[in-house]
Design a protein that fits this description.
There is one protein chain. The chain is α/β, with parallel strands linked by helices and 461 residues long. The protein folds into 2 domains: 69-99, no CATH class; 103-436, Nitrilase/N-carbamoyl-D-aminoacid amidohydrolase, CATH 3.60.110. Helix content is 35%, strand content 19%. The protein has 13 helices and 17 strands. Strand 8 and strand 9 (276-277) form a beta hairpin.
Length: 461
């Protein structure tokens, strides 16, 4: 730490120290006096160094207690860390590079009503709002829809009775849906299996008790809120299909703004990576790539692991989706570098909006389990890092929600932007679907031969 004394000044002070020697030492020779002084100085320096190290260790312990798990040095997100660390003009340029521009301008903030802010303060959830605009058209009016995403942690420990866990999560989520309703949200999507811990990697069958039919407890709870706020709600649940032998599915129930069930979509792709080997609980979906036409626009649901499959995103686009939701549950060590990229790429390539939702928190389970990656047994999957966000077809995106707090993200989006970007880039007109279809049809046959042209000199060498 600087004290205002230069290095040369400090050395001068050291040379003057003998003048401060106690009078009892004056009978010693100058050599012995110097030796004693040097030892005294060395002891003093070691003492100060120990005090410094102890102080730093204590500071680190305090910091560890005060910095929430999952935060970035105490900040909710990378965006907020950069905002606090950079000069405004530098931060503005960095934001442009990271988040893009919407119709040539930075995203505008939405001023949300005070009641929503009060709820976010009372129940401690992150609340943010942004606006995606489209260019003004001569023959079409703007088609602005207000859309929301909710990310949440579990409320009670996984050892609590299942019915109590479920009720506590429902109570928590209601406060965020109320904030969305007060904010005029038209369509909202919850995270994957929002009504339970994400226990699908423990391989314990007792967690199947959280399953429910399409019109079960959670759907009925959300139907009431859909009617109250005239809101379309995407409700991802663990579905029990009583009509087909009690089979379980990972399902999104689409609830209309009148409280009716419009339809369902079942998760197409089941992961087999690390802890996430979910085929113990449910099978690959059998509902294809449905798009649901609501009074607010055409929406689809690409559940979790499906975001890693470009053709899955493509299929929803070919069926006419304007907004695709990606309710997920994923941890930092496994997927965080991919999280800001895949959905944004899908929005660009398919000319629709994407809402990406991830749960938050670390969920510990009573019985340790192992996975297919060779790691020792453990009791949790790691930290679910939240960071839910919206992506636009023009490559712009919102800052993400917190990495560790519950959150509600609200966005106005002009759906005219979807067609405007199709016209601008012409991806639909320049794609060669006939070539892709031919390759895929040949690939599915047992006698498929890859189209590889070999250098004739390769094997001669």
């Amino acid at each position: 730490m600087r004290t205002g004394v230069s290095q040369s000044d400090s050395s001068v002070r050291c040379r003057r120290l003998p003048l401060l020697v106690p009078t009892s030492d004056y009978g010693l020779s100058s050599t012995r006096r110097r030796s004693k002084i040097e030892k005294s100085m060395e002891t003093d320096l070691k003492s100060k160094q120990a005090e410094k190290e102890n102080g730093e260790a204590a500071a680190e312990r305090v910091l560890a207690r005060t910095v929430p798990e999952g935060s970035i040095h105490g900040f909710d997100s990378l965006h907020r860390l950069l905002e606090a660390s950079l000069e405004p003009e530098i931060f503005q340029e960095v934001s442009r590079m990271l988040l893009g521009l919407n119709c040539g301008k930075p995203l505008e903030l939405i001023l949300l009503p005070q009641v929503a802010g009060s709820l976010s303060t009372k129940y401690d959830f992150d609340l943010q709002g942004f606006c995606f605009r489209a260019d003004e058209e001569s023959l079409r009016q703007p088609r602005v829809v207000r859309v929301g995403l909710i990310q949440n942690s579990i409320t009670l420990p996984t050892t609590a009775p299942f019915n109590e866990q479920k009720k506590a999560i429902i109570h928590k989520v209601k406060s965020m849906i109320d904030a969305a309703g007060a904010s005029g949200v038209n369509i909202i999507c919850l995270q994957e299996a929002w009504m339970m811990p994400f226990a699908f990697c423990t391989r314990e069958k007792r967690w199947c008790e959280f399953s429910e039919p399409i019109d079960g407890e959670c759907t009925q709870f959300l139907q009431d809120l859909a009617r109250k706020y005239s809101m379309v709600i995407v409700n991802p649940i663990l579905e029990r299909d009583a009509k087909h032998g009690e089979v379980l599915w990972n399902t999104a129930v689409i609830i209309g703004n009148n409280g009716n069930i419009i339809g369902i979509h079942r998760k197409n792709h089941i992961p087999r990576v690390g802890d996430f080997n979910e085929s113990t609980y449910y099978m690959e979906g059998n509902t294809g790539h449905p798009v649901f036409e609501t009074c607010y626009g055409k929406i689809a649901v690409n559940i979790c692991y499906g975001r890693h499959h470009p053709l899955n995103w493509l299929a929803f686009g070919l069926n006419g989706a304007e907004i695709v939701f990606n309710p997920s549950a994923t941890v930092g060590e496994l997927s965080e570098p991919m999280w800001p990229i895949e959905a944004r790429n899908a929005a660009i390539a398919n000319s629709y909006f994407v809402g990406s939702i991830n749960r938050v928190g670390t969920e510990a389970f009573p019985n340790p389990f192992t996975s297919g990656d060779g790691k020792p047994q453990h009791s949790d999957f790691g930290h679910f890092y939240g960071s839910s966000y919206f992506s636009s077809p023009d490559a712009s995106c919102t800052p993400s929600l917190s990495r560790y707090r519950d959150g509600l993200l609200v966005s106005d989006m002009d759906l005219n932007l979807c067609r405007q970007l199709k016209d601008k880039w012409g991806f639909r007109m320049t794609a060669r679907y006939e070539l892709y279809a031919d390759l895929l049809s040949r690939y599915l046959k047992p006698d498929f031969i890859p189209q590889v042209i070999v250098d004739p000199y390769l094997h001669k060498q």
